[in-house]
Amino acid sequence: MKDIPQTFRRNVSIVMNTEHHDKLIKELAQMGLGGLAGDLSNLFNVTNVVVTDDAHDVFVGDFGHAIYAKYEPIMYNKKKQALKGIYQFALNYVFDIKIIPELLRIVNIK
């Protein structure tokens, strides 16, 4: 985490799957540090530790600033039927997604 810019380190989170989480808890228990397993965010000095089965690797980073999504709604094909009280339109969103790789890391676990 030391290579993540200093201004973003206070918002760093760790995302891992259940298998990695369970291995981490077992390793801590074998080292006699099982009591630290209850507060992993304090142990790693991060904001959040997220455990989800959707993660295939362990990710570390500032997800609030590293993934930037900008969208703009566009309305078209407007049809108004005032007497019936109907207003029809099609809504389309244009997305611009940018990922800032300097703020994300993939952890290689051996």
Structure, explained:
The protein is an alpha+beta fold and 110 residues long. It has a domain of 72 residues. The protein is 20% helix and 41% strand. It is built from three helices and six strands, in the order βααββαβββ. A four-stranded mixed β-sheet has the order 2-1-3-6. Strands 4-5 form a two-stranded antiparallel ribbon. The longest helix has 13 residues. The radius of gyration is 22 Å and the shape is elongated. The mean pLDDT is 84.
Q: Determine the strand fraction and express it as a percent band.
A: 35-45%
Write down how many β-strands occur, each being a DSSP E stretch of 2 or more residues. 6
Sheet/helix structural class = alpha+beta
Q: How many alpha or pi helices? A: 3
Protein name: Pahtogenicity island protein
List the helices and strands and how they pair.
Blueprint: E1 13-16, H1 18-30, H2 40-44, E2 48-51, E3 58-61, H3 63-66, E4 67-81, E5 86-99, E6 104-107
Parallel strand pairs: 1-2
Antiparallel strand pairs: 1-3, 3-6, 4-5
Attribute tags:
alpha+beta, 110 residues, single chain, Pahtogenicity island protein
Write a compact overview of the structure shown.
The protein is of the alpha+beta class. The protein has 3 helices and 6 strands; from the N terminus they run βααββαβββ.
